[in-house]
Design brief:
heterodimer, A: alpha+beta, NADH Oxidase, 4-stranded antiparallel β-sheet, 6 strands, globular, B: mainly alpha, 2 strands
Chain lengths: ~260, ~120
């Protein structure tokens, strides 16, 4: 699928084919996509635990439910638990990785980088103080993990899968999966083949970028170029908004199929 | 409560309007009324009381869902379904009909999905 089409086709899928297996190959593609995400200092911020639903016993599956994630856990064949691994926040990790990036030329003298700068300046004077602020550590760990999750989601869409991020019962997950204390739980990403129209009848409404983006100063909203907008529509990035009537009919049909509330 | 009394309750009228159930076949509508009437009798509360009882008032004076009472109500639904002898898909569907009543009265609650 073309990249812009992938971006345009992503939806939060709410109904999955519960018994259509998800190929391990496709999960690997998602994980590799996550592994290619931008990451400051080339640090490994994220951890992921892939769970095939049918490998869980009924009690564990029940225990992972929260009020917002109940029916979904029954339907999605795969759950990927994402964590921000806070052990990244060690100045020595940055020293090692930054020196590697310098030696490879990814960070280079043109931009002021050198082994000496890493050894004698940046770690001690910038990284270490930064990592002593818990708010910064939390912000950085979770935002970098989020970048990885997003790439995994887009890769899934490219592979014809449906995905949706969900909350989960952290207490149960901790007891069952025994993840270490320095892994901060972020989301579970439910994965499966969509039982609904994968495009769910259209995109969710989005406000114009001119309401969120500015140019040169905050008094000047970004002005959309209609020609670009048309180009993005042709490429599938911008699509028609969801048709509420059609969606209601689809939801009703799916609710009846799965015995869910209408 | 009788199905007729249930049908006239404001919370049930609200449910049918919000879920667009009024145009359903009469048989389906009666099934819902009867099921909710049985559930009301099971918990000893009217539909209006059931819905209102899941809400609490915050210190700031706002209405909020009581997570504890919602969990208890969810368990009551499962208990009712079991006691009524529903099995298989019927158990899932009938429990979720009651949850649908709660959902359309502003109570966020999810049931299990039937996987066949």
């Amino acid at each position: 699928m073309e990249f812009k089409q992938v971006l345009g086709n992503r939806r939060s899928i709410r109904y999955f084919e519960p018994d259509k297996p998800v190929e391990k190959e496709k999960i690997q593609i998602m994980l590799e996509a996550a592994n290619r995400a931008s990451r400051s200092g080339n640090i490994d911020y994220w951890k992921a635990l892939v769970i095939y639903r049918d490998e869980l016993d009924a009690e564990t599956l029940d225990g992972l439910r929260v009020p917002t994630t109940t029916a979904d856990l029954d339907m999605a064949p795969v759950q990927i638990y994402w964590f921000a691994d806070m052990s990244y926040a060690d100045p020595d990790n940055f020293r090692k990785n930054l020196k590697e990036l310098v030696s490879l030329g990814a960070l280079n003298a043109s931009h002021g980088w050198s082994d000496a700068y890493v050894d004698e300046n940046v770690v001690g004077q910038i990284i270490a103080p930064m990592l002593s602020d818990p708010q910064v550590v939390g912000w950085m760990g979770t935002i970098e993990t989020g970048l990885a999750i997003n790439q995994a989601m887009l890769a899934a869409v490219d592979e014809g899968l449906g995905v949706c991020l969900h909350a989960f019962n952290i207490e149960t997950a901790k007891a069952v999966f025994k993840f270490p204390d320095h892994w901060v739980p972020c989301w579970t990403l439910l994965v499966g083949y969509p039982a609904e129209d994968p495009l769910t009848g259209g995109q969710r409404p989005r406000r114009s970028i001119s309401t969120m983006a500015y140019i040169n100063n905050l008094d000047t909203p970004w002005e959309e170029d209609p020609a670009v907008t048309e180009k993005l529509k042709a490429a599938g990035l911008i699509q028609n908004e969801i048709d509420a009537e059609k969606r209601a009919a689809e939801v009703r049909e799916l609710a009846r199929r799965f015995g869910l509330p209408e | 409560m009788t199905p007729e009394e249930v049908a006239a309750a404001p919370s049930v009228v609200r449910w049918f309007d919000s879920a667009r159930l009024n145009s359903d076949p009469d048989e389906e509508k009666q099934l819902r009324y009867r099921l909710l009437a049985d559930f009301s009798n099971h918990v000893g509360q009217s539909p209006d009381e059931i819905a209102a009882g899941l809400l609490r008032t915050t210190k700031a004076g706002q209405s909020a869902i009581s997570a504890k009472r919602r969990a208890a109500m969810d368990a009551s639904i499962d208990e009712f379904v079991e006691k009524s002898g529903f099995t298989g898909k019927d158990a899932v569907v009938n429990g979720n009909i009651i949850r649908s009543f709660l959902v359309h009265n502003g109570i966020f609650i999810q049931g299990r999905a039937w996987r066949g």
